[in-house]
Amino acid sequence: MHAFQHSDGYIKWLMQSIKNVVQGKREVCLLCGAAKSNQTTLKLCAKCVHDIPWIKHLQCMHCGRAAHCPDCKRNEIKYIHANRSAVSYTPVMKQWLALYKFRGQEMLLPLFVDMMIIGMETHYHPLLAQRKANIIVSFVPTSRERNIERGFNQAQQLAEGVALYYDLDCMQLVDRIQHTEKQSRQNREQRKIALRDAFHFNPASTHVVSQWRQRRVPMIVLLIDDVYTTGSTLNACAKCIVQALPDAVVYSLCWSRA
Ligand SMILES: [Zn+2]
Ligand SMILES: [Zn+2]
After folding, report:
1. What is the SS3 assignment for 218?
2. What is the chain's Cα-based Rg?
3. Based on the structure, what is the number of domains in the chain?
4. Is residue 145 very low, low, confident or very high in pLDDT (cuts 50, 70, 90)?
5. How far is the CA of 143 from the centre of ligand 1 (A)?
6. Ligand of minimum distance to the alpha carbon of 63
7. Which of 51, 76, 91 is the last residue of a domain?
8. In what order do the strands lie in the sheet with 135-139?
9. Given pLDDT bands bounded at 50, 70 and 90, which one contains residue 2?
10. How far is the centre of ligand 1, averaged over its atoms, from the C-alpha of 103 (Å)?
11. N or C, which end of the chain is more exposed by having fewer CB within 10 Å?
12. CA of 232 to the centre of ligand 1 (A)
């Protein structure tokens, strides 16, 4: 669907919002248009806030999963130092992401950024205690074809939002070479092969490399993506970064953990 076409959900939201504004309830839920709850800083109603499955207690300290994790035992995700995610990828979260991603509802971006910041505050305190100048925020690139089709890269938008909030530099350190087939249609082995050559270090950021080499301080890269599924995409990106910047330590923050 074209980014500027409005979905039925959007029209419904708009009508509900107009009704609430007319009735004097100025602040409305970004997702369903009901009156905003004053129990939260998020622009959501009480019901929508209640639906958020925040990740609070981790079972896997590597990928930040709230449940038993067989993935990390395979030891394939070795270029990512640690991943943390704000929420679990439940069917409701899947719907929210679809609203933001596929229906062109870019107005949901502030909500997703706010949720990323809550994830950051919950899980990455030690990271935030580092000197700001030593951290670079980056993101998983999408293929050009998909960027054109969707009109924006959600990982980049989230990264820019997080960087802006914490006053950190944001830079595209990794570029995507080929259009890999939708990950959901591939099995683990196919995915690995497709990802092997999918990314390379972004030539536009090589000046960063030389600057960092001169400074001789370890660089922390915070890679941003929307959903952590197997970690293989993030790992492939982190590999490019570590190959170009051997001293870099790559952390990742995703909006949700599948
Ligand atoms: Zn709501
Ligand atoms: Zn894990």
Report:
1. coil
2. 19
3. 2
4. low
5. 33
6. 2
7. 51
8. 82-88, 249-257, 220-228, 135-139, 169-170
9. very low
10. 18
11. N
12. 33
